[in-house]
Write a structure and sequence with these properties.
The chain is an alpha/beta fold and 127 residues long. It has a single domain, classed as Rossmann fold, CATH 3.40.50.2300. The protein contains 5 helices and 5 strands, in the order E-H-E-H-E-H-E-H-E-H. Strands 2-1-3-4-5 form a 5-stranded parallel beta sheet, sandwiched between helices. Strand 4, helix 4 and strand 5 form a beta-alpha-beta unit.
Amino acid sequence: MKKRVMIIDDEKDYCYFIKTNLEMSGGYSVYTLSNSKWAARIASTFKPSVIILDIMMPGVDGFAVLKELKSNKHTLAIPVIMLSASHGIDDKLKASNLYSEEYLIKPVELNFLRTRIDKILDRSLPG
C-alpha cells in the first residue's frame, strides 16, 4: 500500500520536485496544494499518512494551518513535518508546541526526507 503524502507549499516548482522524486522512488502517492487556505478541508478528504507543510506562505501561514489540523478531529492524528527556509529557534519551538513531528530546513536532501517520512510512519503504526 502506498504512503499518502500531502505537500502544502506555495512554491509550486518545489512541490513538483518533491512529488516527482517521492513518486519515482516508489511507495508514495503525493498530493500537492499551493493554497494553504483549504489545507485542513482537503486533508480531511485526502486522508494523507503524513503532511509536509511550509511555514511562510501568503494568506494563511503554516503555523495557522498546523493549529487548524491539530484542532480538527479528522486530521489531529496525521503527522506533520514542517519544511521551511527559516532556521530560527523561535519557529522550531512554535512548531513543536503546535505538535509537529519534525522541523526540516529547505532545501532538504530527498533521501533524508524519505527516511524521516518512513520513520514517522513506522512510529504511528499500531502495535
